[in-house]
């Protein structure tokens, strides 16, 4: 009996556990809170990731460890990796945790990025504003997610407000200033790399964010094959450079037909949730196969798929469940503003059918605005 340990007990851990059940796997989840939603399906160790007693108990009960939460302290991941195999490796995790290290690696690998500068002081912010120009975004280097820890600077006059909002973080998690990319589209590559270096990607995914939070994903993206190949080549280079094992996502901006890398998520990714029903093998199943050294599954699509995120509270399920290609995922979380509480995946065999399905679901759930950009992309 193999037990997979997962650091972090959110919906990603929950979906990993659900997809690992047919493989006969057991799971142990570690989280700092006792009501983490993966705990509904797997036993838990509740404790701080920096607490060696709790982490030691976790290590003693698992055969291999992986992450649901990308901000597990790098030292804790390192400590764990000295006791049990950990995938992805702590260096890959540490690189992806720091926007500066991440963007520096992208540059070294020849992957284009928006202009950026590390910011530790107010004077550096003024200097960087002069070189990068406006609009731009001031972000915390670490610990940001769902667009948190970011301040959009529209004109140089916003510098004071940006520093008021985030300046206190400069000495703690560091800051980075990035040029604002007036992108036409956001895309992501969800990829998997096995212990033996085998590399696969799912079809390119197109994403729409609202207030910095993913709202909808469409696969395959309406992109030409050459663009997709470029995106896949960037992901492959990253996987190799980091000796990455498991699933990761590379978020990209597409502007004027060119790709610019935004960030690397060292884990299964929200823009890959559609793979559960829309692909031969889901990102969750392939992540487990990768970390266990099992053969990777085929990543080809089954039709087209659109994922809609439910933020704050769950809508009514019936309109989605009534659709032939409708699939429902309720994470079992309490409602809270801004929180990802579930998602739906709509699948169809043609772009026309998928668009029609989305229009119906949008009207019935009063979510026309959420489905509109996807319907437009489907033509
Ligand atoms: P998550 O990890 O949940 O994807 P995050 O908090 O790490 O989010 P980012 O991915 O950096 O944040 O930003 C969230 C969204 O904000 C992006 O997907 C994009 O829509 C927008 N955004 C971020 N940086 C830029 C940029 N430089 N130019 C234009 N838009 C941006
Ligand atoms: Mg992020
Ligand atoms: Mg992001």
From TrEMBL:
<dbReference type="InterPro" id="IPR040686">
    <property type="entry name" value="PurK_C"/>
</dbReference>
<feature type="binding site">
    <location>
        <begin position="262"/>
        <end position="263"/>
    </location>
    <ligand>
        <name>ATP</name>
    </ligand>
</feature>
<protein>
    <recommendedName>
        <fullName>N5-carboxyaminoimidazole ribonucleotide synthase</fullName>
        <ecNumber>6.3.4.18</ecNumber>
    </recommendedName>
</protein>
<feature type="binding site">
    <location>
        <position position="186"/>
    </location>
    <ligand>
        <name>ATP</name>
    </ligand>
</feature>
<dbReference type="InterPro" id="IPR011761">
    <property type="entry name" value="ATP-grasp"/>
</dbReference>
<dbReference type="Pfam" id="PF02222">
    <property type="entry name" value="ATP-grasp"/>
</dbReference>
<dbReference type="InterPro" id="IPR016185">
    <property type="entry name" value="PreATP-grasp_dom_sf"/>
</dbReference>
<comment type="pathway">
    <text>Purine metabolism; IMP biosynthesis via de novo pathway; 5-amino-1-(5-phospho-D-ribosyl)imidazole-4-carboxylate from 5-amino-1-(5-phospho-D-ribosyl)imidazole (N5-CAIR route): step 1/2.</text>
</comment>
<dbReference type="Pfam" id="PF22660">
    <property type="entry name" value="RS_preATP-grasp-like"/>
</dbReference>
<dbReference type="GO" id="GO:0034028">
    <property type="term" value="F:5-(carboxyamino)imidazole ribonucleotide synthase activity"/>
</dbReference>
<feature type="domain" description="ATP-grasp">
    <location>
        <begin position="103"/>
        <end position="292"/>
    </location>
</feature>
<dbReference type="InterPro" id="IPR054350">
    <property type="entry name" value="PurT/PurK_preATP-grasp"/>
</dbReference>
<comment type="function">
    <text>Catalyzes the ATP-dependent conversion of 5-aminoimidazole ribonucleotide (AIR) and HCO(3)- to N5-carboxyaminoimidazole ribonucleotide (N5-CAIR).</text>
</comment>
<keyword id="KW-0547">Nucleotide-binding</keyword>
<keyword id="KW-0436">Ligase</keyword>
<keyword id="KW-0067">ATP-binding</keyword>
<dbReference type="InterPro" id="IPR011054">
    <property type="entry name" value="Rudment_hybrid_motif"/>
</dbReference>
<comment type="function">
    <text>Catalyzes the ATP-dependent conversion of 5-aminoimidazole ribonucleotide (AIR) and HCO(3)(-) to N5-carboxyaminoimidazole ribonucleotide (N5-CAIR).</text>
</comment>
<feature type="binding site">
    <location>
        <begin position="178"/>
        <end position="181"/>
    </location>
    <ligand>
        <name>ATP</name>
    </ligand>
</feature>
<keyword id="KW-0658">Purine biosynthesis</keyword>
<comment type="subunit">
    <text>Homodimer.</text>
</comment>
<dbReference type="InterPro" id="IPR013815">
    <property type="entry name" value="ATP_grasp_subdomain_1"/>
</dbReference>
<dbReference type="Pfam" id="PF17769">
    <property type="entry name" value="PurK_C"/>
</dbReference>
<comment type="similarity">
    <text>Belongs to the PurK/PurT family.</text>
</comment>
<dbReference type="InterPro" id="IPR003135">
    <property type="entry name" value="ATP-grasp_carboxylate-amine"/>
</dbReference>
<dbReference type="InterPro" id="IPR005875">
    <property type="entry name" value="PurK"/>
</dbReference>
<feature type="binding site">
    <location>
        <begin position="144"/>
        <end position="150"/>
    </location>
    <ligand>
        <name>ATP</name>
    </ligand>
</feature>
<feature type="binding site">
    <location>
        <position position="99"/>
    </location>
    <ligand>
        <name>ATP</name>
    </ligand>
</feature>
<feature type="binding site">
    <location>
        <position position="209"/>
    </location>
    <ligand>
        <name>ATP</name>
    </ligand>
</feature>
<feature type="binding site">
    <location>
        <position position="139"/>
    </location>
    <ligand>
        <name>ATP</name>
    </ligand>
</feature>
């Amino acid at each position: 009996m193999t037990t997979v340990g997962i650091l972090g007990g959110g919906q990603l851990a929950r979906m990993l556990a659900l997809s690992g059940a047919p493989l006969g796997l057991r799971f142990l989840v570690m989280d700092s809170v006792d009501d983490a939603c993966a705990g509904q399906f797997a036993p838990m160790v509740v404790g701080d990731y920096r607490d060696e007693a709790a982490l030691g108990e976790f290590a003693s009960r698992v055969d291999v460890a992986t992450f649901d939460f990308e901000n597990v302290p790098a030292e804790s991941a390192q400590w764990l990796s000295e006791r049990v195999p950990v995938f992805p490796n702590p260096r890959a995790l540490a690189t992806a945790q720091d926007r500066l290290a991440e963007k520096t690696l992208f540059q070294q690998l020849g992957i284009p990025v928006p202009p950026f500068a590390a910011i530790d002081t107010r004077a550096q912010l003024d200097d960087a504003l002069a070189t990068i120009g406006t609009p731009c975004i001031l972000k915390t280097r670490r610990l940001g997610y769902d667009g948190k820890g970011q301040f959009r600077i529209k004109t140089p006059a916003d510098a004071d407000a940006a520093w008021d909002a985030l300046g206190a973080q400069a000495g703690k998690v560091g800051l980075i200033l990035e040029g604002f990319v007036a992108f036409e589209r956001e895309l992501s590559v969800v990829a998997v790399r096995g212990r033996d270096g085998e590399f696969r990607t799912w079809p390119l995914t197109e994403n729409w964010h609202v207030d910095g939070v993913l709202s909808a994903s469409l696969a395959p993206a309406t992109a030409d094959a050459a663009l997709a190949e470029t995106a896949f080549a960037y992901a492959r280079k990253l996987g190799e450079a980091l000796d990455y094992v498991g699933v990761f996502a590379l978020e990209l901006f597409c502007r004027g037909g060119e790709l610019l890398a935004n960030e690397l998520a060292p884990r299964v990714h929200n823009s890959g949730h559609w793979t559960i029903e829309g692909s031969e093998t889901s990102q969750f199943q392939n992540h487990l196969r990768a970390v266990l050294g099992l053969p990777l599954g085929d990543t080809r699509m089954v039709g087209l798929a659109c994922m809609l995120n439910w933020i704050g509270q769950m809508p009514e399920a019936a309109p989605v469940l009534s659709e032939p290609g409708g699939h429902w995922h309720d994470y079992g979380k309490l409602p809270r503003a801004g929180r990802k509480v579930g998602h739906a995946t709509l699948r169809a065999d043609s772009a026309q059918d998928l668009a029609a399905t989305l229009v119906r679901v949008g009207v019935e759930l009063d979510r026309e605005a959420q489905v509109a950009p996807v319907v437009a992309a489907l033509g």
